[in-house]
Amino acid sequence: MNSIFSRTSVRLAAVAALFVLAAAYFIISMFGGQQEVVVARVIVKPGKVVAATDVKLQQIPKSAVPKGAITKTENVVGKSVKVIRYPGDTIKNEMLTGKETEELAIRSGEYIVAVELTGSSVADMVADGDTIAIMPLSVTSATTGQGTVEPPIISGIKVLRVDRKEESGSALSGSTAVVATLYVIVDAKQVQAIGKAKSGKYDVILEKKAG
Asked: Which pTM does this prediction carry?
């Protein structure tokens, strides 16, 4: 009797293990695992010719790979970027020099920074020529390690151009989200502040509509 019970338990355990493996394979197949993309290793400023030491390959979840992301460093090296890229930022085809370089011309001392918004109401409303503010969210105090501090809002940022597209959400929900890339004009001080904001979480406020 005990022998029959033991064999039955082993069979049930084997079936359960196979079910878990099948479920894991199904989830991995659906959501894709990892993908290598080209990211900035250092700060790459607009107009700078990208060197091999400026970029690297980094693995991120396939579901998080932005449209147009470049997957081979040789497709970036030797070209210039139109917008500043901070360490860890992905480099997309649309950010490399091309026919739109003249359109994005700026004055000396100014920089163009790409700010991405996903699933935000501002992503639907903001347009070329608008003025926005970037609000970094609360962070732990670096000096005391206690509580949170409210970083200053970076205001008065002029939007040069908006590229808007829809991206699919999860395979289960079937939803879509609006992703807006805002190309904004900033000065040297704002570049540093935005770089810090983009290293964590931030929100964007629409301050003023153009016209």
From this structure: 0.52
Asked whether the beta carbons of 205 and 135 are under 8 A apart, the reply is: yes
* H helix count then E strand count, the chain: 3, 9
**Whether 105 contacts 172, CB under 8 Å:** no
Query: How many residues in total does the chain contain?
Result: 211
SS3 state at 93: helix
DSSP β-bridge partners for residue 154: 134
Dihedral sign for Cα atoms in the order 176, 99, 133, 187? positive
CA dihedral 115, 119, 123, 124 (to 10 degrees): 160
Angle at 197 between CA 115 and CA 52, to 5 degrees: 70
**Interatomic CA distance for residues 112 and 81, integer angstroms:** 10
Distance CA 196, CA 10 (A): 55
User: Among candidates 86, 68, 71, 3, which has minimal Cα distance to 38?
Assistant: 71
- The per-residue pLDDT for range 166-204, each reduced to its tens digit, is 766 555 555 677 788 888 888 888 888 888 887 778 888
Separation of alpha carbons 144 and 187, rounded Å: 30
Are the beta carbons of 84 and 105 closer than 8 angstroms? no
Structure confidence by residue, pLDDT tens digits, 48-102: 778 888 899 999 888 888 888 999 988 888 888 888 899 999 999 888 874 333 3
* 3-state secondary structure at position 18: helix
